[in-house]
Specification:
Mean pLDDT: 95
CATH topology: Alpha-Beta Plaits
Order of helices and strands: EHEEEEHE
CATH architecture: 2-Layer Sandwich
Number of domains: 1
Helix content: 10-25%
Radius of gyration: 15 Å
Keywords: Phosphoprotein
Family: Belongs to the P(II) protein family.
Number of strands: 6
Bound molecules: adenosine-5'-triphosphate, magnesium ion
Number of helices: 2
Strand order of the largest sheet: 2-5-1-6
Largest sheet: 4 strands, antiparallel
Protein name: Nitrogen regulatory protein P-II
GO molecular function, one term: enzyme regulator activity
InterPro entries: N-reg_PII, N-reg_PII-like_a/b, N-reg_PII/ATP_PRibTrfase_C, N-reg_PII_CS
Shape: elongated
CATH class: Alpha Beta
Distance between the termini: 9 Å
Structural class: alpha+beta
Strand content: 25-35%
Low-confidence stretches: none
Amino acid sequence: MKLITAIIQSHKLDDVKVALADAGVHGITISEANGYGQQRGHTEFYRGVEYVVDLIPKIRVEIVTSDAEMESIVDVIIKSAGTGHIGDGKIWVTTLDMVARVRTGETGIAAI
Ligand SMILES: Nc1ncnc2c1ncn2[C@@H]1O[C@H](COP(=O)(O)OP(=O)(O)OP(=O)(O)O)[C@@H](O)[C@H]1O
Ligand SMILES: [Mg+2]
């Protein structure tokens, strides 16, 4: 099992949500995140305004999925979150030891 973490631009959240639902993803977690990438100290646009990059607000999307589906989901996020401009976001993937559904006690793939 894999945890996909994607940091995306806030204004792309709706596009990403729709694309993930269309791809059959049935569980996501969304939270606010502040950070910077390789433009720190340079400028980046946020809501049409140019900022010197220190900590820029973005959206974190987390998806727990199977090993088999991970690559296609990453691809869906890249295509739906991208504008071709700096600050479009970053995605990383980690391996999960354990997932459990609280209601049933199911664990592993059955709990996703
Ligand atoms: N190395 C990193 N470690 C942890 N978080 C990161 C890292 N790089 C970027 N992030 C997070 O991802 C967000 C988006 O990064 P961003 O799209 O600016 O990446 P980038 O590598 O600078 O690419 P680009 O040149 O396209 O801007 C950042 O605001 C930050 O929250
Ligand atoms: Mg950047």
